[in-house]
Amino acid sequence: MDNTDLEIFLVATPGLETPLLAEAQEAGFAEARLAPGGVTVRGNLREVWRANLQLRGANKVLVRVGSFPAVHLAQLDKRARKFPWGVFLKPDVPVRVEATSRKSRIYHAGAARQRIEGAISDTLGAPISSEATVRVLLRIEKDICTLSLDTSGEALHKRGHKEAVAKAPMRETMAAMFLRNCGFDGSEPVLDPMCGSGTFVIEAAQIAMGLPPGRDRAFAFQDFAGFDPKAWAELRADWVATQTDTVFFGSDRNDGAIAAAQANASRAGVDGATQFQKRAVADLKPPMGGPGLVIVNPPYGARIGDEKRLRSLYGSFGKVMMSRFSGWRVGVVTSNQSLARATRLPLLPPGPIVDHGGTKIRLYQTEALP
Ligand SMILES: C[S@@+](CC[C@H](N)C(=O)[O-])C[C@H]1O[C@@H](n2cnc3c(N)ncnc32)[C@H](O)[C@@H]1O
């Protein structure tokens, strides 16, 4: 396998592919292009590590390691046994295999998976385990088998800082991409007045301070064959936090949420740049240092009977924005268009539909308020 020019696939949250493409381009990844489900870039193994370490919007970083045609299981079995597994997998590290098949003569994904598992355990000796963090992915499409490795392991929204979780937390990868879609570049204050566990505020502070999102966690590629711990340690340490005077604010009416947000901010090392306060939306005032961006993901209300109460919450939020937040931009993330409209804010056309674990949500934005 040639490790110097790999096809690297960045898995996006459905609906947030475009900001991920922009992020990959800005971060200097070569040949960044949109592809179904994410963004492809090219580079060597160091670029694979760097994507895991630096990109805020990718949920996973996969690398394509091989591709061959196969029209029946015996052929797949033969080709899988010839595959140089030892180039990237270690005999003593357990492996998990996942397979999918579409429009192919090999239609039984489970049987295809077993062939790959057999080839890995017989030719390399690595144990197969459904619990393994090292994942080999087989995709069969129109009789072409493509093998990829999941180089991330645990999904990348798990930055390793959030232990305390309030209700319905936003994923960090989504929060970062919504901030980007709002034009946030780290240079203006951000306020989330229903901050829950503080995801938007903590992501915003990390962006402003230039902290790589993956600095405090482990990745599956650390268990690959040929992994170079010294080179990785150098890359991982190769950043300097930017000093920022900008402050990032979160408030919530719930005590538990504020405690969770503060604990998460301190684990992420951004407690110096963040402030959290117990406060109901009706009592909100613009913080110092503005105008900037208000971004919020209010409750959506899944239960019948919630709608009336929520209409009044969204309405009072909109009123507070219009009366006290002149010059601020507002971003509202919600699954319910009629609730977004209940804010009576001058909303621009909404962003694309984003899949938040099965719930379809969208970002509704304003320009700077009059
Ligand atoms: C969907 S959660 C936000 C989750 C958050 N984005 C996160 O990542 O953890 C909505 C939050 O709104 C808060 N909330 C609801 N009504 C409120 C009000 N009137 N004033 C302030 N906060 C309120 C709830 O306590 C809850 O934490």
TrEMBL record:
<dbReference type="Pfam" id="PF02926">
    <property type="entry name" value="THUMP"/>
</dbReference>
<dbReference type="GO" id="GO:0003723">
    <property type="term" value="F:RNA binding"/>
</dbReference>
<dbReference type="InterPro" id="IPR000241">
    <property type="entry name" value="RlmKL-like_Mtase"/>
</dbReference>
<dbReference type="InterPro" id="IPR004114">
    <property type="entry name" value="THUMP_dom"/>
</dbReference>
<dbReference type="GO" id="GO:0052915">
    <property type="term" value="F:23S rRNA (guanine(2445)-N(2))-methyltransferase activity"/>
</dbReference>
<dbReference type="InterPro" id="IPR053943">
    <property type="entry name" value="RlmKL-like_Mtase_CS"/>
</dbReference>
<keyword id="KW-0489">Methyltransferase</keyword>
<protein>
    <submittedName>
        <fullName>Ribosomal RNA large subunit methyltransferase L</fullName>
        <ecNumber>2.1.1.173</ecNumber>
    </submittedName>
</protein>
<dbReference type="InterPro" id="IPR054170">
    <property type="entry name" value="RlmL_1st"/>
</dbReference>
<feature type="domain" description="RlmL ferredoxin-like">
    <location>
        <begin position="7"/>
        <end position="62"/>
    </location>
</feature>
<dbReference type="Pfam" id="PF01170">
    <property type="entry name" value="UPF0020"/>
</dbReference>
<dbReference type="InterPro" id="IPR029063">
    <property type="entry name" value="SAM-dependent_MTases_sf"/>
</dbReference>
<keyword id="KW-0808">Transferase</keyword>
<feature type="domain" description="THUMP">
    <location>
        <begin position="73"/>
        <end position="150"/>
    </location>
</feature>
<feature type="domain" description="Ribosomal RNA large subunit methyltransferase K/L-like methyltransferase">
    <location>
        <begin position="159"/>
        <end position="344"/>
    </location>
</feature>
<dbReference type="Pfam" id="PF22020">
    <property type="entry name" value="RlmL_1st"/>
</dbReference>
<dbReference type="GO" id="GO:0070043">
    <property type="term" value="F:rRNA (guanine-N7-)-methyltransferase activity"/>
</dbReference>
